[in-house]
Amino acid sequence: DWKEINARLSDAQLKVQAARCMDCGVPFCQSDTGCPIGNIIPKWNDLVFKNQWLDALNRLMMTNNFPEFTGRVCPAPCEGACVLGINELPVSIKSIECAIIDKGFEMGWIVPNPPSIRTGKKVAIIGSGPAGLSAADQLNKAGHTVTIYDRNDRFGGLLMYGIPNMKLDKKTVQRRIDLLAQEGIKFVANAHVGVNVDATKVRLENDALIVATGATWPRDLPIPNRNLDGIYFAMEYLQLNTQSLLDSNLQNGKYIDAKDKHGKKNSNHDFLQLVIVIGGGDTGCDCI
Fold this sequence. Notes:
Blueprint: H1 11-20, H2 41-49, H3 53-61, H4 67-73, H5 77-81, H6 93-106, E1 122-126, H7 130-141, E2 145-149, H8 158-161, H9 170-182, E3 186-188, H10 199-204, E4 208-211, H11 234-248, E5 264-265, E6 271-272, H12 282-287
Parallel strand pairs: 1-2, 1-4, 2-3
Antiparallel strand pairs: 5-6
């Protein structure tokens, strides 16, 4: 199947991991070499150890708009900076973070909380990836009226179409999108600003505009035979694959596949479809 692959810790295991946190005098996990958004990690580790999950959730949400995303796909520099990692395994910070936010949704603690007062200011955001969504969430909390434009048919940017379902279930992404919409943020799909939506009009209708179009533009590799058929950029492949999966469970054929392409015969004279991936980082592994 194509469902999210995860290995969640039990409550007992989470308590053990939380207890391993030493509440360092200088907590490198939340320093410049640790969490880039400054999560107050030792505090919510202690609250999880004490079984004070709601307090842990409140402390986590003070610094992180979307822990359900970072708790699944963040590379966890906090764990790399954990002092325990000097001579043993670091605290499983990422697993604790994910457990806190998941319990928040399971217990019904996370509900729409629209601002009680509107400022009358309007902000347009181009792009609904993590940066655009975070900006929208913060601005909406401040009382501004926010509209997000995205060129795709679904919202979330790389969260929706760049990260495979096996890492981040798209139901998790859609759940947050729905929550933001219930809090008053407006979403406009299939809106490619500057192409089928007038950019000047968008700017004039709003008090401010944020461009959060992400880093989807690929770096080409000018090597011999680059222009041959069957060569694709990673994001092109990942988006078409995820879109087809969500639309039809890969039944509509609107994705890139090596099937029926020229291959190499094995000992049984069957054609093998051979695929080469250039690049061994997270994106290359996602394609594999």
